[in-house]
Design brief:
Blueprint: H1 4-22, H2 37-59
Amino acid sequence: MLNVCFVLFQEFFRQSDAEKLEGLPVTPFMDRDKITKPSSQCSFIGLVLLPLFEALGALLPELQVSGL
């Protein structure tokens, strides 16, 4: 079985390589020359997952946890 993290990193690196070839800004957590696995995971959580869950919570308030 493939490691999900490994597969995601491969996709992120392909994306950043394509961005570099096109002269576009590279997505921060996808640049193979600048990231480590822990820093990339923290960036992915902060830039993708957290906003996604906040939007889902606003759209579906029954998903929000109260009392924390």
